[in-house]
Amino acid sequence: MKPLLLLDVDGPLNPYEAPSHAHPPAGYVRHWTRPSAWPGPGPLPVLLAPEHGAELRALTGLYDLVWATTWTADANVWIGPRLGLPELPYVDWPPIREKAPRGTFWKTRYVLEYAAGRPFAWVDDEITSYDREWTARHSLAAALLVRVDPGIGLIRPDFDALAEWAAAL
């Protein structure tokens, strides 16, 4: 069984802190979306790099891809198709989230629950050393946590690290 690759959208795929969101960084295209949880009166702009779709599709030989984003099912409507990804399963976060343990990101506990003892790599912009420590103590299988700069998004070394880690399992 392949390890899971748990993907966040905002930060890794949508560099929402890019210096000039008005002018997308090289390789990114602005898309207008309306995810169901978006409270804004107008559409939500999202920056996506088409090459990320090709990179993620290339990893499907090594991983089972899963959305680990607050976009939940909306990622299959607004993000996946624009990257050429098939419909993916997603972590269905609980509506009421328990307090995160000792400085960890609120998603960490639920990511481990979703993995249920299966090896996984998790890509998110809010991963910290607390999340790494907690995962090392509580995960029942190998885990790779990849923190992505939300001003840059996923880059070549991130994809290389994901491929190398999965190939070494």
Topology:
Layout: E1 4-7, E2 29-33, E3 44-48, H1 50-59, E4 64-67, H2 75-83, H3 106-115, E5 120-124, H4 129-138, E6 143-147, H5 156-168
Parallel strand pairs: 1-4, 1-5, 5-6
Antiparallel strand pairs: 2-3
Overview of the molecule:
The chain has 169 residues and is an alpha/beta fold. Helices cover 31% and strands 17% of the residues. The radius of gyration is 15 Å and the shape is globular.
Biggest sheet character: 4 strands, parallel
Assembly form of the protein: single chain
The arrangement of helices and strands along the chain is EEEHEHHEHEH
Name the strands of the widest sheet in spatial order: 4-1-5-6
Query: What value does the Rg take, in angstroms?
Result: 15 Å
Q: Indicate the low-confidence ranges by residue numbers.
A: none
Gap from first CA to last CA: 11 Å
Portion of residues in beta strands equals 15-25%
Overall body shape: globular
Key features?
two-stranded antiparallel ribbon; 6 strands; globular; alpha/beta; single chain; 169 residues; 4-stranded parallel beta sheet
